Amino acid sequence: MARVIVVTSGKGGVGKTTTTSNIGMSLARLGHSTLLIDADVGLRNLDLLLGLENRIIYTGLDVLKEDCRIEQAIIQDKRQPKLSFFPLSSNRAELPIRADQVQEFITRLKDDYEYILIDSPAGIDNGFQTAIECADEALVVVTPEVPSIRDADRVIGILMSKGIKQINLIINRIRPNMVKTDDMMSVEDVKNILGIELLGVVPDSEKIIVASNRGEPIVLEAKTCLPGQAFENIARRLTGEEVSFLDLNNSGGRNSVKRILRNFINRSK
What we know:
Layout: E1 3-8, H1 16-29, E2 34-38, H2 46-50, H3 60-64, H4 70-73, E3 75-76, E4 83-87, H5 99-109, E5 115-119, H6 126-133, E6 137-142, H7 146-161, E7 166-174, H8 176-180, H9 187-194, E8 197-203, H10 206-214, H11 226-238, H12 256-268
Parallel strand pairs: 1-5, 1-6, 2-4, 2-5, 6-7, 7-8
Antiparallel strand pairs: 3-4
Helix pairs in contact: 1-11, 5-6, 7-12
């Protein structure tokens, strides 16, 4: 029976889809059968980051219309046989997919995988509500910036109101040098403000952009790339393994950024 985990963020552009693709690839490389579901109806990008865009023939909408079987819409990654991808719709979707329809898909697929990761749309509109409705756990991806933290705080509240108790934090695009000069919040700042368990920290790197453009998850270079190691460690922690956090020299604390953020969140409540 699969663990169904939604990967969400609140704010767009924080690396949520990149996180989904890399954790999924890492879980598969660790020997766990993993299915990635792109729930971003209308703005599908997970297929691009996995390099699978040219292999999509059918989607979840085609399954609903009975134009194909669900097995025909699922794509198996040729690089990693334990990784599969299921697009819910094309980028030209005319009809939204309801939460009960996604739940039906997951019910049919749960016994075939150990992990099902749902890539949620940004924001808190209908697509987000559909994605979280079907999940048992959540990974909240943030960057150490005021808008990202504020939106994540609201998302965490919604997740809790839906009864999702297992919520973990991933801090993406941390820049240790900026933390040292008090120009960026530290990991401790973000943890203290959001108040959920930290699962991983990923340093900012141009290599992630290059890998994404190639459709190659950065974890395929984990042995020689710090962000790849970070994503792989996140996957290991997700499975229950005790893994030390990478030393990114990002301890910080009493900086003006943190005070600004707290005031910002307090005003928004």
